[in-house]
Amino acid sequence: MIEESVESRFIIGFTEEQKVIRDTIKDYADHVIRPKVMEFDEAQEFPLAILKELGEMGFMGILIPEQYGGSGLGYVEYALIIEELAKVDPSIALSVAAHNGLCTNHLYLFGNEEQREKYLPDLASGRVIGAWGLTEPFSGSDAAAMKTTAVKESGAWMVNGSKNFITHGTYADTSVILAITNKEKGKKGISAFIAGRNYDGYSASKKENKLGMRASDTAQLSFMNLRLPEENLLGNEGEGFIQAMKVLEGGRISIAALSCGLAQGALDASLKYSSERVQFGKSINSFQGIQFKLADMETNINAARLLTYQAAVAKDNGQPIHDIAPKAKLFASEIAEKAASEAVQIFGGYGFTKDYPVEKFYRDVKLLTIGEGTSEVQRIVIARNLAQE
User: Fold this and answer.
1) Which of 121, 128, 278, 325 gives the lowest tally of CB atoms within 10 Å of its CB?
2) What is the Cα–Cα distance from 154 to 351, expressed in whole angstroms?
3) Alpha-carbon distance 91 to 198, whole Å?
4) What per-residue string of b and e applies to 163-188 under the rule 16 or more CB within 10 Å gives b?
């Protein structure tokens, strides 16, 4: 009943194919992932087997054309898949988003034909897990302040440095990493490379012990005299930073969709609990204080979804998203944070325990206002766009 009522109040129409995709991933999330959510979370276990199964279902190469082994879908389908996963387990949704939208998408967008044919089929099928290395211990929002270097020596690139907070850092076989190739040129001196565990000098080190998103592996990557062949350069030398910004622009749609899914999961749990919890002789959803919380959650989620799918449709139509994507990411992540908080409040003392899903939503949600561009960075981008207009 909850799902039907939500869809009937949401004005964007989906095609029959999109509905089938949504229902397929929803069914998988409900029956396969949901029973194991807290098991994965408590153990900080990366669910590699689940990602492999999602790959077999076509959900690890969502944006990749069929000629490279992908599903050949668009950003609307991508957003639907991430949203449905996030309603059940945001950490698995995050892993699927990072694999599809960062590493795999970067290779597709900026790789040459030889690189696409070599790497994309394994990534798109889920046989290989991908990582994307931009952030460093001393460069977060200021990505151009990275220290990792790549120096050309004897027909190869010698890479030294490290990357921090890398999703799938421990498990990724293939990664895209950013490094300085010409320090004098600043942002225009950063290049992108294909790397991975099969190269000497490449290693995963510190695995992060995180507040939330604990089933999504996050680790540090270290490069010590990592020797990469010349053909591992992605695009042209000095284009890495521009490439990364383009990749992150699309990534904002996936984080917005993840935020919508998490918020909807929190609302669904709150609706169910508030109808069952009895105080003073009646269900607590009959109290105006609870009703107002539910009404605000519902309204904000619908507004966030409109922004998110507006950005997804624009992306699929080849229209610029530099303005709408940061708005979607900013608004959706912040209303998700509010929804998770209100859900815990509705559950009261039970919301503070691991017996109910809202405790995990509350921990997971904070990353969404930080990852792939903080809320502050999104506001800077939005303000700059306004000034340019």
Assistant:
1) 278
2) 60
3) 27
4) bbbbbbbbbbbbbbbbbbbeeeeeeb
- Cβ contacts of 39 within 8 Å, gap of 6 or more: 45
pLDDT tens for the chain, 389 residues long, are: 344 444 544 556 899 999 999 999 999 999 999 999 999 999 999 999 999 999 999 999 999 999 999 999 999 999 999 999 999 999 999 999 999 999 999 999 999 999 999 999 999 999 999 999 999 999 988 888 999 999 999 889 999 999 999 999 999 999 999 999 999 999 999 999 999 999 999 999 899 999 999 999 999 999 999 999 999 999 999 999 999 999 999 999 999 999 999 999 999 999 999 999 999 999 999 999 999 999 999 999 999 999 999 999 999 999 999 999 999 999 999 999 999 999 999 999 999 999 999 999 999 999 999 999 999 999 999 999 999 97
Catalytic residue among 84, 136, 334, 372: 372
| Alpha helix ranges (H) inside the chain | 2-8, 16-28, 37-43, 48-56, 75-88, 90-98, 105-110, 113-125, 240-276, 288-316, 324-347, 358-364, 375-388
The pair phi, psi for residue 317, each rounded to 5°, is -90, 5
3 carries an active-site annotation:
no
Return the C-alpha torsion angle 117, 122, 128, 131, nearest 10: 40
Q: Dig out the tokens for 69 from the structure.
A: 């082994």
321-356: b or e for each residue (b if 16 or more CB lie within 10 Å)? Answer: bebbbbbbbbbbbbbbbbbbbbbbebbeeebeeeeb
The encoded tokens of residue 307 equal 């922004």
Q: What are phi and psi of 211, to 5 degrees?
A: -65, -50
Measure the CA–CA gap between 103 and 318, rounded to whole angstroms: 21
What domains sit in the chain, N to C, each tagged with a CATH number?
2-129 (1.10.540.10), 131-239 (2.40.110.10), 242-388 (1.20.140.10)
Q: What is the pTM of this model?
A: 0.95
